[in-house]
Amino acid sequence: MAQNPQATAIEALAHNAARKISWRLLPILGIGYGLAFMDRASVSYAALSMNLDLHFTATIYGFGAGLFFIGNAAAEVPSNLLLLRYGAKRIMATIMFVWGLVATSMMFVHSPIEFYALRFLLGVAEAGFYPGVIYYLTLWYPITMRARAASRFYIALPLSSVLMGGLTGWLMSLNGHLGLAGWQWLFLVEGLPAVFFAPVIFWLLPDSPKQAKWLTREELDWLDEQLARDGEKAHLGHDAGILKALLSPRVWTVGLYFFFVGICAYGLTLLLPLILTEATGQRAGAVGWMIALFSLIGAVAMLLNGIHSDHKRERALHCIVPCIVMAAGFLIASYSANMWVVVISLAVSFIATYSLWGPALSVPMEFLAGPAAAAGIAAMNTIAIFSGFVAPYWMGVMKDASGNYNIGLRGLMVAALAAAGMMAILMRSLAKKKLSAA
User: Fold this and answer.
1) Residues 237-261, buried b or exposed e (16+ Cβ, 10 A)?
2) What is the pLDDT of residues 105-151, one digit of tens each?
3) Radius of gyration over alpha carbons of the chain, in Å?
4) What's this model's pTM, rounded to 2 decimal places?
5) CA torsion, ordered 194, 292, 109, 40, to nearest 10 deg
6) What does 212-251 look like in DSSP terms, one character per residue?
7) Domains, the chain, ordered by start
């Protein structure tokens, strides 16, 4: 049967608009988030020698690593509200410039108090960038394209892990050059790029589609129409106030899902170099390349799961199944005495953690729109961000108490299963709303 010419024209228009948006925005946002992740996670590689040089226990390191997320949580919602008032590019560029300076300053740490203070300040400085990007994507992509868009943006996380893993051995080998320890070189080299990339954010990011001179009038009209339809279907749409979004049970349910996922993600991200070094006896460079390989596979898994989720128009199973896989990996790694079983199990958990982000990040975009989306996404991330404090502190305390990370890994298993449960509860709630509205 011949296809409707009008439908074909609209499909071509949508394809061209999405292609332009993706090529113009996602690389910039991805590089920005990749730099953010490197600056928050570089401490995990620095710890391989920093903890010995500064006589930090596992508990001191875990507490300090986690303080980043307390600072992040404190400034998250205000930062996103500033983005609403002053525009995305101004706030994101300012955030990036300041956090780059703070991240670089980590090279001057000499005591636990200095470590705690700078990690907290780094969290405050970076707050708002990630939830700001997620909100920003809702201004540019219809619901049906958001899992792919989110996964293509978020792929910066595993790719930045690949870069960090590859750089670690070289930076640590600079130990003693110009009077700096290897871990100081790591903070210096991985902190400064954010300072230099901040002007790029300011110059190249439009605040909204209306400021994008590279979109035609027809493409803008199509995008406005699609976003308006999505807003009408949203649980909290353009007419919902900020307070209503902050008090929504569904916002809190998604926040708790990301909280439990975050415990798994940060429990691995901030401790995996230490865990693998202990399990394998390998040096920093070898462990870095090992994690780089895990991250590369995780990037592929993230893209494929996001594409499949959009194709099937299904989110729940694409979020729940990876959580169950994560839990299995943590459980096996915590009980095995075989080095390679531990490495492979943690690799599987690591890859599964990355794979869920595309579908998971598209979930709040499906029931939030307008100002409610900015406030709701920031509120979810504020709830979730506390996981970054809980996870490394939990792992550090359990390591000091038991002499290994096994009990800590079992705690991550519980968090993975709790995340699966929260997503099931959320999807059941949204399904009931659709039935009642029908």
Assistant:
1) beebebeebbebebbbbbbbbbbbb
2) 999 999 999 999 999 999 999 988 887 887 888 888 887 777 777 77
3) 21
4) 0.73
5) 50
6) -TTS-HHHHHHHHHHHHHHHHH-SB-TTS-HHHHHH-HHH
7) 18-437 (1.20.1250.20)
